[in-house]
Write a structure and sequence with these properties.
By secondary structure, the protein is mainly α. 68% of the residues lie in helices and 0% in strands. The chain folds into 2 domains: 3-60, Orthogonal Bundle (Arc Repressor Mutant, subunit A), CATH 1.10.10.60; 65-195, Orthogonal Bundle (Tetracycline Repressor, domain 2), CATH 1.10.357.10. The protein has helices at 3-23, 30-37, 41-47, 51-61, 78-100, 107-119, 125-140, 150-172, 181-192. Helix 8 (150-172) packs antiparallel against helix 9. Residues 29-48 bind DNA.
Amino acid sequence: MGGAAMSTRERILDAAADILRTRGVAHATTKEIAQATGVSEPTLYKYFPDKERLLLAVLEERVPGLSQVTVRPGEGDVEENLTELAHAALTFYQRSIPMLGALLADPRRMAAHREAMSRHGAGPDRAVAGFAAYLSAERDLGRIAEDADPEAAAALLIGACFQEAFLRYYAEGRDAAAAPRARAEALARAVVRPLR
């Protein structure tokens, strides 16, 4: 896409990120996002075929998180790699909870959201699967215990990250400071040490 198209897309993402952060995905509308961007709704749909694809783009491009972290099995220290992943997960969850929280209260919207995320190959289960795949590869390389359970360890770490992010949001609200790296280190250490 050309420069003008890119700037329109970027403006849409910026407006969507602001609106989703303050109103949440359950209450924000594409009409509202289009108006905040200064484009028509049909123009918005040229860039994003549905609201879920727009949400995914916001989460991937405007919310710091797992997509910005690359760790490779066999490289670096396992605990340090998991710290990087955990810190990214903490940041992502802390920023995305206000956007997605209201969906939990509406079973119909939640089901529609779940179906749409599945169509786009996305959803909250992807984080656990990604961590588990990383840990499985490290186990295959002999860098963690042969009898380690990558799925359980991944679920524990992701669950701890989500809980930490939720508690920070609960205590301090939408503008809470990002979780410190030291917290991610403690969570990663608690998961990795038993795997060795």
